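Problem 3 from the worked examples.
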Amino acid sequence: MTAVNLMLGNGFVMTRAPQKRKVQTRGRMLDIAREIVEKQGFAALRVEDVVAGAQVAKGTFFSHFQDKDGILIVLAGEILAHHLDDMTNRPAPESLDDMMTGLEPLVGFLASDRIVFDIFIAYSGAIRGPAHEAIAQSLERATKIFTDWTTHMTQHGLVRQDVDPARLAEGILAFKSHVLALHHCTDAKDPGRAVKALGPFLREWLVLR
């Protein structure tokens, strides 16, 4: 492939072909990583398997991702974004049961793999260092979705009205993390159990006063 040089206004030259190859290499590594995760789960992902499958040097991997967590964040972030898209497109809940139905796929995903939950907590900024941008964006989106839901439910008298909807949304996030942490501290294998365990907390928190 012949590189195409583009003269920029500031006199610098940009080479298009190497940039395209870099994007393709990153995409190939992500494709291999997705295949591994789909077949064996997030815990089975190893840098060695990714570079072997993508036929690249280990140094190439680390030029794209800081470490294994870096690629895990991308993969988990894609799935989180999918669930958040679905939640955004759902009508606002008309009952607590309706809310639980809307939450089920997201909570189920976070409950399905300990590695996913650990990544989410570790890079949310809640425990160590600054938050990773992708995880922070997921949290911001979830907070907005929950705030939109609780605002609608408050306006229609479906939940308690003595607490600001934004604070109600914060409570949903907090109880979700609490239930997931308890879930992963046990030998529970069924993600559905975490979803069911969240219900009583939300009913107590959101119940009409």
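Problem 4, a separate protein:
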Amino acid sequence: MILPIVAYGDPVLRKMGEEISPEYPKIQELIDNMFETMYKSSGVGLAAPQIGKAIRLFLVDTSGFVDEDEEDDEGLKDFVKVFINPEILEEDGEDWTFNEGCLSIPDVREDVIRPEQVKIKYFDRDFKEHVEVYDGLKARVIQHEYDHIEGILFTDYLSPLKKRLLKGRLSNISKGKINVGYKMRFPKK
């Protein structure tokens, strides 16, 4: 089932996600619905707060970064993962800039600086624990989605000037004055 994406301005996007257990109601169905929603909206990651649930769950599929005939040096085509109750243990490496966007903040893309490597502990969809290190675009997507379960948006990393320049566009998004190709839920007035 395709779920509506929560738009910028909704308070759930600012909440710290709560840990969940294997007994969380219909967790497998929720994960499947999140994947379906992410694919329908052409995303490469989706966090539970973006579908209105303040829980520590996000998923990624970075195949959208790679064209069919393109070399896949980073292994992005097959990087499909579910992260439950993740904890970033370490961020390392050179800081690098990448132009980020967000399904909850449509039509806004800005350069964000993040460390190139991340070490993360998490449970997969079967609640098996992992500790892994990722770098490059994999790390970038993980850091972006992880921020969502911490109540942080990519726009929080922008300079005060950039934030002022985006204020009108962000306000329009929160008021539903935007046309996107996927289902959205806008903050109640």
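Solution to problem 4. Residues 56 and 85 are 5 Å apart (CA to CA). Helices lie at 27-40, 136-149, 160-174.
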